Amino acid sequence: MQKHKFGQIHHVDQSSFEDFLLTYTPVFFLNTGRSGSAFLENAFKSIDGVDANHEAHPNLMMFPNFALHHQNEAIILKKVFEAARMELILDSFVKEKLFIETNHCLVFFIHQIKALFPKARFVHLLRHPGNFIRSAVMKGWHRNDSIWENNRIRMKDDQEWKQLTQIEKLAWTWNSTHNFIDDFKSTYGEDVMTLKLEELISSQQAFTQMIKFLGCEIQFNDEMIERLQNEKVNEIFISDSEPSTMFKLADYPKYNGWNPKDKEQVVNYCGNLASKYNYQL
Questions:
Q1: Could you give the CA distance from residue 225 to residue 228 in angstroms, rounded to a whole number?
Q2: How far is the C-alpha of 80 from the C-alpha of 67, rounded, in Å?
Q3: Rounded CA gap, 22 and 27, in Å?
C-alpha cells in the first residue's frame, strides 16, 4: 500500500484527500444478510494490514428501504454514505490498511460508493435462496418489531406487501437485492467478483481466488483456510431476555424438507435468478 506522511486523519490536506478518493481501493461484500458476512469479517479481522468490518458504526440500518426506493436521489445517498463512512475509510488509509466491510445495508449505496471511490472493489456474495430464507425466518426477519425491521427493503405498495407470507417477503428480498447487484455488475463487472457462500466455505480454491481478486497482501495457508471454513459464526442465539416481539426460532426445517406450497413461493420470486446462478429450487 502507498506510503504517506500523515499520522492522523485531520492532518490530511485537500490534495492528498482527492488523491485518496481516486486511488484507494476499499472493498465491499454485497449480500442480502444471513449470507456469510459475519464469517468473512471473522476471517479478515485478525489479519495485519486489514480493517475488517461486519457492520461498521453507524451501520445504516435505518436506510436500506429508503436507499432502494430513492436511487434518483443520488446526492442525498452520497451524503449519507459520506457522513457514515468517509472518516472510517480515511482512517484505514492513514493507517495504511485495507478497509473491508461486509454489511448488507450498504448494497443500495453501491453506485454512490463507486462514484466516490472509482477503484473500489466489490464481491457479490450469494447464498441459496432457500437457505437464506430459512436463516432469516429463524432470525425473525419480516416478523419482528424493531427499528431495524421497520427499515428493511420492501415493496413500494404497502398493501400488496402486507398480503405476502413471510416466505414470500424473504424470497422477494433475495431476488430484489441480487437483481440490484446484477444491474450494477452490468456496468462495473470488472470490479465485482461473484462468489457463492457454499463455495467459499467448502473450497480452498474459491477462498484463495477471492483473496487474489481483492489485490491485498494477505497470506492464508491451507490450514488457516480450513480452520476458518469450519468455524461457526453468527449462529442464531435466543437469550433468556429476548423480547417475544423478535419472533426468533431455535430451529426451522431445511429447504429440502419444505412442503411444495412453500417451495413454490420461492420459485415464483427467485426462480429465474436462482437458475442463472445454478441453484436448484
A1: 5
A2: 10
A3: 14
Distance of CA 207 to the CA centre of its chain: 17
Within 10 angstroms of residue 111's Cβ, the number of other Cβ atoms is 18
Q: What is the DSSP string of the chain?
A: ----S-SSGGG--HHHHHHHHHH---EEEE--SSSSHHHHHHHHTTSTTEEEESSPSS--TT-HHHHHHTTT-HHHHHHHHHHHHHHHHHHHHHTT-EEEE--GGGGGGHHHHHHH-TT-EEEEEE--HHHHHHHHHHHTTTTS-SHHHHTS---S-HHHHHTS-HHHHHHHHHHHHHHHHHHHHHHHGGGEEEEEHHHHTT-HHHHHHHHHHHT------HHHHHHHHH---S-----TT--GGG---S----GGGS-HHHHHHHHHHHHHHHHHTT---
Query: How many C-beta atoms lie closer than 10 Å to residue 14's C-beta?
Result: 7
Mean pLDDT (10-residue bins), the chain, 281 residues: 64 87 95 84 77 90 97 97 96 92 96 97 96 94 89 96 97 98 95 92 83 70 57 61 84 95 98 97 96
Q: Could you state, in order of their start, the residue ranges of all structural domains in the chain? A: 22-230+243-276
State phi, psi for 239 to the nearest 5 degrees.
-80, 165
CB-based burial label for 234 (10 Å; 0-12, 13-18, 19+): middle
Say which CATH topology domain 22-230+243-276 has: Rossmann fold (3.40.50)
Strand order in the sheet with 50-53: 50-53, 98-101, 27-30, 121-126, 192-196
